[in-house]
Amino acid sequence: GGTNWVSFGDNFHADNHTLFFHPQNSDIVLEGNDGGLYYSLDGGSTFTHFDNLPNSQFYTCEVDPQNPTNLYGGLQDNGTYRTQTGNINDWEMINGGDGFYVLVDPTDNSIIYSESQYGGFGFGSTGIDFSDRFNWSTPFVFNPQNSASLFLGSDKMYKTTDRANTWSAISSDLTNGPSQGNLPYGTITTIAVAPSDSNTIYAGTDDANVWVTQNSGTTWTKISDSLPHRWITRLAVDNFNSQVAYVTISGYRWGENIGHLYRTTNAGIQWKDISSNLPDAPFNDIIVDEQRDSTLYLASDVGVFMTKNLGRSWQVLGNDLPNVVVNDLKFHNPTRTLVAATYGRSMYKINVDSVTTSVVSNDMSIPNYSLEQNYPNPFNATTSIRYSLSNRGIVSLKVYDVDGKEVATLVNYKELESGKHQTTFDANRLASGIYFYRISIERNGCQNYNETKKLLLLK
Question: How large is the greatest C-alpha to C-alpha distance in the chain, in angstroms?
Answer without folding.
Answer: 88
